[in-house]
C-alpha cells in the first residue's frame, strides 16, 4: 500500500479464494451502476408512449397536452418543497445549535436521539397525523389569517374549510425533513475547530457572537448542502402530501385556499392504482421528471459538500 | 502540538467581596423569574378572556406561545438595560434557539400521543390474527399486511444486504481509481432516488417481463431493495473504514491472503457496526408506502407467495384504510391508527435494538 510505483512490486500469489472474493465484490459494485442505469433506461422506455401518443387519446390528460398536464404538478412539487424548506431550515439550524452549543453536555446526546425519533416515524403515519390532527387544528388559524392578512397575496383565501391546504402539507413536509437537516448541521457545527471557538470567547465575544464569527462561517457550506438534501427529500416525499393535501390542480401561490396544486409524487400515488393503458405511461413520464429534478438538486448538494471537504480546515 | 498549561481554575468567590465577573450581569435566577412571570400573566389574561367569553374556551397553546414571546421581549429589554446590547442579543438568541428545539418537539409529542391514543382502540388479538377478507365494517385485522411486510422487507434484505456489503468491501478494500469513484458518486445519487420512483422502476421492470398491470410481492421487494442498497453501502463503508489499518497489516505480515483478512479480521472487527447499519436500513424501508403501493398493489387477502398476485403491507394497509373508508368510517380509521401504531412500534424496536447492538458489541478500540 505504501510502496511507491517505481519500486518493483512482488506480485502476490493469486489464490482462487482471492479471485472469487474480489470478483464478487467488483460485480456487486458494478451492479449498482447497472441498477441505476436500468432505472433511468426503463423509465425513459416506458415514458416514450406518453409523448408519442395523441394527447386526445389519453384519458388522464383530460384534453390538455402533456406539458400542460405536468406543469402544475412540477409547480406544486417545487412550491410545497420550497415552503417546507423555508419553514424547516431556520428551525433545524436552531436545533442543531441548541444540541451542539447550548444544551448541557450531558443532555445533548439524548436530545439528539429525540430528534432522530422524528426520522424513524414512517411517512404514512405523518400523513395520517397531518390529515386527521394537524389539518383540523390549523383550520381556525387559516380563517384568522384570511380575515386579518387577506391583503397579502399568499393568504388571500377564501380559507379552506378542511385545513388541507398546501401550507399544511408543507408543514408536514417540514417536520419530515427536519431530522435530516438537523443531523447534518449538527455534525458540521460539532466539527468547528475548538481553537476558533475558544479564540473568539477569549476575545470577549458572547456565545452568540462566537457562533456568528466561528461556527456559522465554518458551517455555511454544510448548512447549504443539508438544506439541499432536505429539499431533495421534500421533493420526492409522496404519502404525506397525498394524504394531507386536497388537490384541485391549477397553479396558484395562495397558501390557505381550497384550490391547491398537487405534487408529482402525490399525483402518481393517487392516480396509479386506477390507471390503465397509456395513462400509466404518462404517470411514469412524470416520475421521470421528478427523478431528474431530485437528481439535479442532490448532485448540486453533493458538489457543495465535496468542495467543502477540499477547502475546510477540518481533518 | 505544544499547548500552554491552563492556569488553575479560580474557585467560586466565597467572601463578601464583589465578584468582578458577575458585576453588570443579570443573576442566574432572573430569566427563570421572567419566564414564570410572563407565563402567569399570559395565563391570567387568557383566563380572563375565557371567563368573559365562555364559548371560546381556554386556549392553553396560545397562552404558552404568547408567554414565550413576552419572555423574549422582556428578557431582551432587561438585559439591554443592565448588561448592554451585546449580551441582550445573546440572550435573545438563546431564547430563539431553545424555542426552535421546543417547536420541533411539539409535532413529535402530538404525533406519538395521537397514535398511542387512537391506536390502542383496536390493538387486540383479532387485529393480529385476521385478514381483511370479506370484512366490510368492524372487525378484521392486519395479519395479511404484517405477513406481507415481513415477506417483502425480508426479500429486500436478502437482495440488498449481500450486494450492499460486498460493494462496501469493494470500495474499502479493493476499489481504486475511476470505478470506485463512480460507484461512490452513484451510491450518493441512489440515496436521493424518490421512493415512488423506485416503485415505478420495479413496476416497469416487471411490466417488460409480464405485461402491463402486473403487481407482485417481489416487485415491491425489488423497489425496497433499490432504496435499501445505498443505505447499506453507506453505513457499512463507514464501519469498515473504522477498522484500524494495523490490524490488516498485522494479518498480511503473517502471510494471510487478502480475502481471509477481510473475512476473518475486518468483518469480525466491524460486525457490530455493520449489524447496526443494516438494521437501521431495514427500519428505514419497512415504513415505505409509495413504492409498495405502486409495485405490489393492495389486497384484502392473505398472500404467502411473493411471485404470485398482489401483496398487502402494513404501510399500504394504513394508507388504504385511511383513503377508502367504507360505510363505517370509524372502523376503518381505527384500523388505520392501530396499523400506524404497530408500524411505529416495529420501527422503534428495530432502532432500539440497533443502538443496543452498537453499544454492547462494538470493539473497545480506545480507552
| CATH architecture descriptor of chain A | Orthogonal Bundle
What's the overall average pLDDT of chain B, rounded?
Answer: 85
From the alpha carbons, calculate the radius of gyration of chain B and give it in angstroms. 29 Å
Largest sheet of chain B: none
Separation of the first and last Cα atoms of chain B: 21 Å
Q: How many domain units of chain B?
A: 2
CATH class of chain A: Mainly Alpha
Q: What would CATH call the class of the largest domain in chain B?
A: Mainly Alpha
Q: Output the structural class of chain A.
A: mainly alpha
Biggest interface goes to:
A-B, 92 and 95 residues
Helix coverage percent of chain A = over 70%
- Work out the oligomeric state of the chains in this entry: heterodimer
Features:
heterodimer, A: 315 residues, mainly alpha, MetI-like fold, 10 helices, B: 367 residues, 0% strand, flat, disordered N terminus, phosphate transport (chain A)
Q: Can you characterise this structure?
A:
The complex is a heterodimer of chains A (315) and B (367). Chain A has 315 residues and is an all-alpha fold. Chain A has one domain: MetI-like (MetI-like fold, Orthogonal Bundle), CATH 1.10.3720.10. Chain A contains ten helices and no strands. Chain A has helices at residues 16-52, 66-102, 105-120, 123-149, 166-190, 194-202, 207-236, 239-244, 264-271, 278-311. In chain A, α5 crosses α7. The longest helix of chain A is centred in the first third of the chain and has 37 residues, at 16-52. The two termini of chain A are 21 Å apart. In chain A, 48% of the residues are buried. Residues 311-315 of chain A have low confidence and may be disordered. Chain B is flat and about 70 Å long. Chain B has helices at 29-52, 60-82, 85-119, 125-129, 143-174, 177-191, 195-210, 217-242, 245-253, 258-269, 271-285, 290-295, 314-323, 329-361. With 367 residues, chain B is mainly α. Chain B has 14 helices and no strands. The model of chain B is unreliable at 1-13 (pLDDT under 50). Chain B has two domains: 29-121, no CATH class; 141-361, Orthogonal Bundle (MetI-like fold), CATH 1.10.3720. Helices cover 71% and strands 0% of the residues of chain B. Chains A and B meet through α1, α2, α3, α4 and α5 of A and α3, α5, α6, α7 and α8 of B.
Amino acid at each position: 500500500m505504501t510502496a511507491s510505483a517505481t519500486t518493483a512490486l512482488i506480485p502476490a500469489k493469486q489464490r482462487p479464494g482471492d479471485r472469487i472474493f474480489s470478483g464478487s465484490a467488483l460485480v456487486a459494485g458494478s451492479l449498482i451502476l447497472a441498477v441505476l442505469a436500468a432505472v433511468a433506461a426503463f423509465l425513459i422506455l416506458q415514458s416514450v408512449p406518453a409523448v408519442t401518443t395523441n394527447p386526445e387519446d389519453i384519458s388522464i390528460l383530460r384534453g390538455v397536452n402533456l406539458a400542460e398536464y405536468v406543469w402544475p404538478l412540477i409547480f406544486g412539487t417545487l412550491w410545497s418543497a420550497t415552503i417546507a424548506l423555508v419553514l424547516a431550515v431556520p428551525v433545524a439550524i436552531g436545533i442543531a445549535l441548541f444540541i451542539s452549543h447550548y444544551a448541557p453536555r450531558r443532555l445533548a446526546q439524548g436530545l439528539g436521539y429525540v430528534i432522530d425519533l422524528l426520522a424513524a416515524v414512517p411517512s404514512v403515519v405523518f400523513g395520517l397525523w397531518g390529515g386527521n390532527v394537524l389539518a383540523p387544528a390549523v383550520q381556525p388559524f387559516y380563517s384568522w389569517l384570511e380575515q386579518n392578512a387577506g391583503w397579502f397575496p399568499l393568504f388571500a383565501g377564501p380559507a379552506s374549510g378542511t385545513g388541507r391546504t398546501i401550507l399544511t402539507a408543507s408543514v408536514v413536509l417540514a417536520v419530515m425533513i427536519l431530522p435530516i437537516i438537523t443531523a447534518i448541521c449538527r455534525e458540521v457545527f460539532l466539527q468547528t475547530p475548538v481553537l476558533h471557538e475558544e479564540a473568539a470567547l477569549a476575545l470577549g465575544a458572547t456565545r452568540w457572537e462566537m457562533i456568528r464569527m466561528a461556527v456559522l462561517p465554518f458551517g455555511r457550506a454544510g448548512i447549504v448542502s443539508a438544506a439541499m438534501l432536505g429539499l431533495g427529500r421534500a421533493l420526492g416525499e409522496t404519502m404525506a402530501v397525498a394524504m394531507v393535501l386536497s388537490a384541485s390542480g391549477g397553479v396558484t401561490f395562495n397558501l390557505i385556499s381550497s384550490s391547491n396544486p398537487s405534487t408529482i409524487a402525490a399525483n402518481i400515488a393517487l392516480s396509479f392504482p386506477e390507471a390503465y393503458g397509456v395513462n400509466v405511461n404518462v404517470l411514469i413520464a412524470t416520475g421521470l421528471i421528478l427523478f431528474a429534478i431530485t437528481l439535479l438538486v442532490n448532485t448540486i448538494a453533493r458538489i457543495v459538500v465535496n468542495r467543502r471537504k477540499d477547502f475546510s480546515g477540518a481533518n | 502540538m505544544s499547548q500552554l498549561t491552563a492556569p488553575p481554575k479560580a474557585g467560586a468567590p466565597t467572601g463578601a467581596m464583589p465578584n468582578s465577573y458577575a458585576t453588570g450581569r443579570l443573576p442566574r435566577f432572573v430569566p427563570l423569574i421572567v419566564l414564570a412571570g410572563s407565563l402567569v400573566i399570559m395565563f391570567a389574561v387568557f383566563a380572563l378572556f375565557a371567563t368573559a367569553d365562555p364559548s371560546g374556551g381556554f386556549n392553553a397553546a396560545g397562552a404558552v406561545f404568547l408567554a414565550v414571546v413576552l419572555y423574549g421581549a422582556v428578557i431582551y429589554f432587561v438585559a439591554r438595560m443592565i448588561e448592554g446590547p451585546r449580551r441582550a442579543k445573546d440572550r435573545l438568541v438563546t431564547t430563539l434557539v431553545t424555542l426552535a428545539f421546543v417547536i420541533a418537539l411539539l409535532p413529535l409529542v402530538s404525533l406519538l400521543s395521537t397514535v398511542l391514543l387512537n391506536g390502542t382502540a383496536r390493538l387486540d388479538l383479532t387485529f393480529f390474527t385476521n385478514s381483511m377478507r370479506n370484512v366490510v365494517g368492524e372487525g378484521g385485522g392486519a395479519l395479511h399486511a404484517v405477513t406481507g411486510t415481513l415477506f417483502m422487507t425480508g426479500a429486500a434484505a436478502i437482495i440488498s444486504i449481500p450486494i450492499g456489503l460486498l460493494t462496501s468491501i469493494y470500495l474499502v478494500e479493493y476499489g481504486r481509481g475511476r470505478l470506485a469513484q463512480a460507484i461512490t458518486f452513484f451510491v450518493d445519487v441512489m440515496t436521493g432516488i424518490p421512493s415512488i420512483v423506485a416503485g415505478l422502476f420495479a413496476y416497469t421492470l416487471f411490466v417488460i417481463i409480464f405485461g402491463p398491470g402486473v403487481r407482485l410481492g417481489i416487485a415491491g421487494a425489488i423497489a425496497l431493495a433499490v432504496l435499501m442498497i445505498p443505505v447499506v453501502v453507506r453505513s457499512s463503508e463507514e464501519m469498515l473504514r473504522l477498522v484500524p489499518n494495523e490490524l490488516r497489516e498485522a494479518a498480511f505480515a503473517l502471510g494471510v491472503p487478502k480475502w481471509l483478512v477481510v473475512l476473518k479480521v475486518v468483518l469480525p472487527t466491524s460486525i457490530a457496526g455493520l449489524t447496526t447499519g443494516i438494521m437501521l436500513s431495514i427500519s428505514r424501508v419497512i415504513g415505505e408506502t409509495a413504492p409498495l403501493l405502486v409495485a405490489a398493489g393492495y389486497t384484502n387477502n392473505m398472500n404467502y407467495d411473493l411471485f404470485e398476485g398482489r401483496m398487502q403491507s402494513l404501510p399500504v394497509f394504513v394508507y388504504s384504510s385511511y383513503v377508502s373508508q367504507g360505510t363505517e368510517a370509524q372502523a376503518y380509521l381505527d384500523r388505520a391508527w392501530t396499523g400506524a401504531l404497530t408500524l411505529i412500534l416495529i420501527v422503534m424496536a428495530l432502532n432500539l435494538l440497533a443502538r443496543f447492538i452498537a453499544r454492547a458489541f462494538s470493539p473497545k478500540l480506545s480507552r
